């Protein structure tokens, strides 16, 4: 059973006219879940409490967000990130919904989950909003899972076209949370070089797989098959959280990649099958994706795979970037190979 959080209330985070991170994103996604669907359990959104948020963010920052959300005002938290009257409460709902699905997955109430919530989170830093993101939903869920469920290894997988700098910063020196990212590089926010592999006790537990613009399904499949899957086998995470951004789609107005909707399904199949090998539940959280039709089609493909469907057979495509990934990450994870 797949737990789904999808609710029009997430449209109440108002980003103003012409902002790509639009409330319409939720409207388009929610049309997939209007009616009862076999294999899907609809879950009501719930709010995180402040203690949950402060697992990953400074108290002064949380208070600042609450104070910025005023009636009748749009406040720019940075050059890209906007908050409105309801944004603080909706951001709490976004984080809380990922937390709820994570708890249900770890308690075996669902096999996997997907929170279609906004604002997104993977750029949010400990004390700053960034890149449309206010609270780092997956980082908060990872910290709560470690704190409350007795597990010791969480993996965060991020396939958004942009590198999740906020998530990487949260766990760069921590081997209890591994961060794996495929992303366009160089590109916003400028982080995520293949040589950024962690520090101290976390050395080797940040796995960046940067790709230059224009890459297609096969290039992504190669990175997930030859780098991610062996690392999951070696690391044996007890929980997998996925920052699911769909802005690497060929139709996306912001990204510069050439993925298809079926390509996202193929990525999900690799994650799903590797997770099954180590008995790790998976919870997805929505990040980017700004072409509404591409977003809806890609999510439909991903949910179908989560329910047990088979993806199209997409051949992996090798190249110098894959060679560099394998050479870099094999130093820490010898199973990585082509």
Net shape:
globular
Report low-confidence residues grouped into runs of 5 or more: none
* Ends apart, CA distance between termini: 34 Å
What do we call the CATH homologous superfamily? Histone deacetylase domain
Supply the number of structural domains.
Answer: 1
Key structural traits:
338 residues, 10 helices, eight-stranded parallel beta sheet, globular, alpha/beta, Arginase, Chain A, two-stranded antiparallel ribbon
Plain-language structure description:
It is a single chain. It is built from 10 helices and 10 strands. It has one domain: Histone deacetylase domain (Arginase, Chain A). Helix 1 (24-30) crosses helix 9, helix 4 crosses helix 5 (137-148) and helix 7 runs parallel beside helix 8. The longest helix is centred in the N-terminal third of the chain and has 20 residues, at 87-106. It has 338 residues and is of the alpha/beta class. The strands form 2 sheets. An 8-stranded parallel β-sheet has the order 2-1-5-10-9-6-7-8, with helices on both faces.
Summarize, please:
This protein has 338 residues and is of the alpha/beta class. The protein has 10 helices and 10 strands. The protein is globular, with a radius of gyration of 18 Å.
Helices and strands, with pairings:
Elements: E1 2-6, H1 24-30, E2 40-42, H2 50-53, H3 59-68, E3 75-76, E4 82-83, H4 87-106, E5 112-116, H5 137-148, E6 154-158, H6 165-171, E7 177-184, E8 206-211, H7 217-235, E9 239-244, H8 261-277, E10 282-286, H9 292-306, H10 320-330
Parallel strand pairs: 1-2, 1-5, 5-10, 6-7, 6-9, 7-8, 9-10
Antiparallel strand pairs: 3-4
